[in-house]
Amino acid sequence: MKQNFFAVDLGATSGRTILGTFIEGGLNLEEINRFPNHLIEVGGHFYWDIYALYRHVIEGLKLVAHRGESIASIGIDTWGVDFVCVGKDGNLLRQPYAYRDPHTVGAPDALFSRISRSKVYEKTGIQIMNFNSLFQLDTLRRNNDSALEAADKILFMPDALSYMLTGKMVTEYTIASTAQLVNAQTRSLEPELLKVVGLTEKNFGRFVFPGEKVGVLTEEVQKITGLGAVPVIAVIGHDTGAAVAAVPALDRNFAYLSSGTWSLMGVETDAPVINTETETLNFTNEGGVEGTIRLLKNICGMWLLERCRLNWGDTSYPELISEADACEPFRSLINPDDDCFVNPANMEKSIAAYCHATGQPVPEQRGQVVRCIFESLALRYRQVLENLRSLSPRPIETLHVIGGGSRNDLLNQFTANAIGIPVVAGPSEATAIGNVMIQAMAAGEATDMAGMRRLIQRSVPLKTYHPQDTDAWDTAYIHFKNCIR
To answer: CA-to-CA distance for 471 and 386, rounded, in angstroms?
Structure first.
């Protein structure tokens, strides 16, 4: 009898539920429902609406139950670092802050007055970013936040949703590793860092690794959905980790680029890479499946274009890409990771201001803005890949682009041109596939990562882009480095 695996995949701008089923020769994915994930701005803060996300998950489960389909298990992955405070009575204390909330501006320096930056990085191997959970928690503590003061437990986003479904509290390793609270060597919560923010291990749920069972649907959820006591599995709770698990590589001589709202570029290693160079370059060591470490760098990705599109109406991506393709190359370049692009009120104006400040032509047409974004991202990828080559224990012969950005032909070709090695694009649904695969491993339908990747390579359409116009891109790269401020 076929087994259906229900994957909940939540990103920072949208979410969806997907039913994954193994068929002869591969894996079939069916989207059950898709929904927006809006930031809520109120009282000077940005929040996530976790109750809306829960409602959408319940709707997806009801749709499957209404069709008479059985579900072998459920797995949830989300973006990293954000969390929910839970009171002693088991209730959520308020909507969770979003990582783009400005309250953590300057937060790292405040923490490093009590524990050194180098010690934090040495223990965790996580890049210093002001929105890491460590800094969020310290900011809440310093601000005497009422939810944190009353909190009995801290649950990261996928674990909070699993709790709402099962009534069981866990802390899944891969999502916790994004928090800068996990010791990279011991693969467990680091007591010294917890103490710095006034917490202990008792403030977190049972520590689990990918593939472990969280619990089963509560009687309440069973009644609402019409399902039985379906198990919820702690998959790779961090969406990037789930996506990397689905890289269709046949050897390990590759780098990956998880391309979506964020671009995350890295390599897989068997142990953390924590040294002066990785600290200086601000590379991160996040937890992966089967004991692997994802040595990677966060790069601002399609967030730039998504924010521009807010002012462009319902223009489709293909139309924007066509406009960009027709524009003059290398007219204007930006550093995608400049602080001015974190969460501006008007992204297009921020890009224009950056170009003006760096003595470049200001984009005047929509296509010029899009081309500026794509070319700048491709050149930033080259810069990060150069650093990865010096850090990776293996040669990098191919770049695998996974996630929604793998469908962007123009950006993928620009990336191949910039980095000078083949780019293999796909699968676009890498996160959901990784989620399903971990559930399948837990159910005994798959055995290991290598076998999973071979199956994905056989069953998912892939497209390879070879470098073109490399001399022009080499020249543009010199210009790009001169534009970075």
So the answer is: 17
